[in-house]
Amino acid sequence: MKYKLLVNVCLLFASTHHAQPGLFFNVSGGYGAPALQQTLQAITFQPNGTDPAGSIIVPLINQNISDSASLKFQSNAYQGYSNGGTVNFVAGYMISHYVGLEIGFASLFGKKLTGKSVFDDPATLGRNVSINTTTWSYGITMSPSIRLQASRPDAAFVPYGRFGLTIPFWGKTIHELDIAAPDFLNTKLPASAKVRAETQSVFSIGFNGSVGVGYNITTWLRVFGEAIANYLFVRSGKTTLTRYDLTFNGETSDLLPSYTTYSKVTSFVDKLDENSNTTVFGKKRAAANPQPGDKVVNEDAPREELRRAANFSAFGFNLGFTFTINNYLWKKKDKRKPLPLNP
User: Partners of 25 in the beta sheet?
Assistant: First the structure.
């Protein structure tokens, strides 16, 4: 029994030694489509008057709920920020031919998502207000992973599987709104506005995995294709208004300089209470003429809202090349005989 165990250990060591572990690098490109469809796939905000502090965070949907609509409706927009192209770079080390560790970096070039909303705002914007929203995301994620290969060391085709974490560490989500108000301030005169806001995230973590197959063109170059799945919800951290141009009566005005930080910046938190910088629990703004003893918001600090999470889960594929620098190649290079200096 001990003899058989010793033989098996030796065979395992021999196969691992023959596999010649070493460094490898992957360069690939691919495309992802949204997974885990939900109604809150993409989020944006809906103005309430001309002060951005009155805006509300809403899911990206299509709707017409104006009293002037011939048929009122609301419909989900099943779109996700993960929809778009990716460019990927991976560096790893094969401990043996069958097991390896790697760290990857993927850049997302998100497809632009659109939605249209028509509603009434009798107080300021008037009736039959329409908002065309365009939103998209870009960024880079990091993915530490484990790789498992299922083939002989000398095989031409190399099936494999990979499982790892998804950690976004750079990027933004952009929201652009094109607003048309045909009865602005109940004057029967049209107005329009162009608004842009940028959302940054806080630490978020997800999971990803892939199955694929590679083909060894040479001892150091492999071409591969893989199917990937990614589960990731990115938590919002801060939204900053970077544009608010209002056109009325033929004149366009940049409203940003007139806004306080409270109006331009939204900070997302996990809990709101009476001490939060918000009007939800009765705090008033300076423009509301607070009375002595009233609590007021800090206009020089961001407005606080409950945190949202945007869906970046995806199914997709990658195609690319693997460049291998293994011990076998280095040893082969070391054993080359030098050419004689005097033939």
Answer: 91, 323
Backbone angles phi, psi at 127, to 5 degrees: -90, 155
Alpha helices in the chain (DSSP H): 2-19, 261-264, 327-334
What span, in angstroms and rounded, lies between the C-alpha atoms of 246 and 155? Answer: 65
- The DSSP result for 202-254, as a single string, is ----EEEEEEEEEEESSSSEEEEEEEEEEE-EEEEEEEEEEEEEEEETTEEEE
Q: What is the reported pTM?
A: 0.82
Find the length of the chain: 343
User: For 209-254, what is each residue's pLDDT tens digit?
Assistant: 999 999 999 988 999 999 999 999 999 999 999 999 999 988 999 9
Taking the C-alpha atoms of residue 187 and residue 125, their distance in angstroms, rounded to an integer, is: 10
Q: Is the pLDDT of residue 278 over 50?
A: yes
Q: What's the pLDDT at 22? A: 87
Contact predicate 112/89, CB 8 Å? no
Residue 301, CB half-sphere, CA atoms under 13 Å: how many? 10
At 9-21, the pLDDT tens digits run 444 444 444 445 7
